[in-house]
Amino acid sequence: MAKLPLIFLAVPLVATGAPAAAAEDGAGRHVLVSYSDLDLASADGRRKLTARVKRASHEVCGGRSTVRQNLNEILAYRECRAAAMRSAEPQLASLFSGQKLADGGPLHVAAK
Q1: How many Å apart are CA 50 and CA 24, to the nearest integer?
Q2: Other CB atoms within 10 Å distance of the CB of residue 112
Q3: Which H/E stretch holds residue 48?
Q4: How many structural domains are present in the chain?
Q5: Cβ-Cβ contacts under 8 Å for 64 (sequence gap 6 or more)
């Protein structure tokens, strides 16, 4: 099975209500997640890739700060992460089943 080298995780933070400083230009943020070193045919490889995507969703949704100022920020962060993971699930499933993506490029993961 040919391995694609990266997952592209992009989350438009303005739409989720995350702090404007995180997405000053309104274009959102993205994180590239490498998996070329993983064997996606194995359970361990799939588990590691899923963990990497979870960490990337934490980072792209403003997870560097462990302190949230108010309930709205907490809820926006949680929704951003949940949306990022939901959008990644079908693409991860395709990779885990051995299928290539239609365009052959990186995975595009976005939160609404």
Answers
A1: 29
A2: 12
A3: helix 43-60
A4: 1
A5: none
Beta-sheet strands, E only, within the chain: 6-11, 29-34, 107-109
For residue 12, what are the contacts with CB-CB under 8 A and spacing of at least 6? 23, 26, 27, 28, 110, 111, 112
Q: How many CB atoms lie within 10 A of CB 57?
A: 25
User: pLDDT by residue (tens digit) across 3-57?
Assistant: 555 555 554 433 334 443 344 333 567 777 777 788 888 899 889 989 988 988 8
Range of the domain at 20: 6-109
Residue-wise pLDDT for 57-112, tens only, equals 888 887 766 666 788 888 888 999 998 888 888 878 888 888 765 555 566 666 55
**At 6, phi and psi to the nearest 5?**
-145, 155
Asked whether residue 48 is assigned to any structural domain, the reply reads yes
State the Cα–Cα distance between residues 27 and 13, nearest whole angstrom: 8
Residue 1 counted as domain residue: no
Amino acid at 95: L
